[in-house]
């Protein structure tokens, strides 16, 4: 059977995928907001263990018409594992599941730094066609505060490597990460964070973009900031204003946008640029009458 070690995280769009933990934890594990893998020491799992799980899934789920079509490789940055290991894993998946249409994984900026374009292209040929990347912010001061490990220019550079390898990117931004107003702690303010984030997304031209609301979780430096009363937490109308600024400044083609992650107050969806004017107008309506806006109640939000 498939053994999942610790809590398993996957993007909302991988709900119906087979999830295999190719790696355990996150090789970076420094981001101040992220508590997902703090209790795990990073390691790559032995291929034999994964091969046994693939064989179990083939026998249990079958390789016929209803067999596995999508696989997500966990944990936090499986792309950082050696390319030869990932290639062997992808070959095993293709052999077991003839109907396999796509394999995806999280790709941190650090993983994109170590993988070459040629390696990513080879892995794409073997089926690894989509990476999820947390851009979080396009503002250098925010990226530094969050300890993302790269600045905006480096984020754009490494994302371009995936693009050059023909791999699709599904990117994430953190609403609220810029604070409310520019402050002495180096936060640039909500609208500056939104504009800088739009500029980086425009430079990357991802296939998918989603926003999450930065939420303090237990065991993280961000939670400590919140406990000290040093974290400006934006209200739903303030977050809607930030999202409006972001959406209005985006210039991306054929990008599927979603704010449907459970951390959001407003669930929006559309394709940019086609639906951009509608999404911005919807947010203008929310901002004009926030008391009538369909904000998700706090108790329904989660991570
Ligand atoms: C597994 S991580 C990201 C993938 C990859 N490791 C990276 O850094 O690019 C998944 C995403 O969840 C979001 N996330 C993590 N912790 C969060 C928090 N406390 N509040 C809101 N979103 C969070 C971030 O956008 C993060 O990029
Ligand atoms: S956001 Fe990504 S890179 Fe940062 S600690 Fe979490 S999993 Fe690791």
How would you sum up this structure in a few lines?
This protein has 303 residues and is an alpha/beta fold. Helix content is 37%, strand content 16%. The protein has one domain (12-290): TIM Barrel (Alpha-Beta Barrel).
Essential attributes:
303 residues, TIM Barrel, 10 strands, 16% strand, globular, binds S-adenosylmethionine, binds iron/sulfur cluster
Overall description:
- The longest helix has 15 residues, at 47-61.
- β7 (168-175), α7 and β8 (208-213) form a beta-alpha-beta unit.
- The two termini are 27 Å apart.
- By secondary structure, the chain is α/β, with parallel strands linked by helices.
- The chain is globular and about 55 Å long.
- The protein has ten helices and ten strands.
- It has one domain (12-290): Aldolase class I (TIM Barrel).
- Iron/sulfur cluster binds at residues 26, 28-31, 34, 36-37, 76-77, 108, 134.
Radius of gyration of CA atoms, rounded to a whole number: 19 Å
Query: What percent strand?
Result: 15-25%
What is the chain-wise order of helices and strands? Answer: EEEHEHEHHEHHEHEHHEEH
Structural domains: how many? 1
Number of strands: 10
**Average predicted local confidence, pLDDT:** 94
Q: How would you sum up the major sheet?
A: 8 strands, mixed
CATH architecture: Alpha-Beta Barrel
In helices, the fraction of residues equals: 25-40%
- CATH superfamily caption: Aldolase class I
Output the number of helix runs: 10
| Small molecules held by this entry | S-adenosylmethionine, iron/sulfur cluster
Strands of the largest sheet, in order across it?
1-4-5-6-7-8-9-10
Enter the CATH topology name: TIM Barrel
Structural class category: alpha/beta
């Amino acid at each position: 059977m498939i053994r999942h070690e610790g809590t398993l995280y996957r993007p909302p769009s991988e709900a119906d995928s087979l999830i295999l933990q190719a790696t355990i934890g996150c090789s970076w594990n420094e981001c101040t907001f992220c508590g997902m893998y703090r209790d795990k020491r990073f390691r790559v799992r032995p291929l034999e263990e994964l091969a046994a799980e693939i064989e179990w899934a083939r026998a249990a789920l079958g390789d016929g018409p209803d067999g596995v079509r999508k696989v997500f490789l966990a944990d936090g940055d499986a792309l950082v594992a050696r390319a030869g290991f990932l290639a062997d894993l992808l070959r095993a998946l293709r052999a077991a599941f003839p109907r396999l249409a796509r394999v995806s994984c999280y790709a941190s900026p650090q993983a994109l730094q170590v993988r070459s374009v040629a390696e990513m292209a080879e892995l794409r040929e073997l089926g690894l066609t989509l990476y999820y990347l947390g851009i979080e912010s396009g503002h250098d001061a925010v990226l530094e505060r969050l300890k993302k490990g790269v600045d905006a220019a480096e984020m754009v550079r490494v994302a371009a490597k995936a693009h050059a390898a023909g791999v699709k990117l599904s990117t994430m931004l953190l609403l609220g990460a810029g604070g409310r107003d520019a402050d002495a702690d180096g936060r640039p303010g909500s609208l500056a964070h939104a504009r800088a984030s739009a500029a980086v997304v425009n430079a990357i031209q991802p296939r998918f973009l989603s926003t999450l609301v930065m939420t303090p979780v237990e065991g993280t430096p961000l939670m400590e900031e919140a406990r000290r009363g040093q974290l400006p937490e934006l209200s739903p109308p303030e977050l809607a204003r930030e999202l409006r600024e972001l959406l209005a400044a985006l210039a991306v083609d054929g990008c599927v946008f979603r704010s449907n992650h459970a951390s959001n107050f407003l669930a929006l969806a559309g394709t940019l640029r086609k639906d951009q004017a509608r999404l911005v107008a919807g947010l203008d309506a929310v901002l004009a009458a926030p008391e009538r806006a369909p904000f998700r109640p706090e108790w329904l939000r989660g991570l």
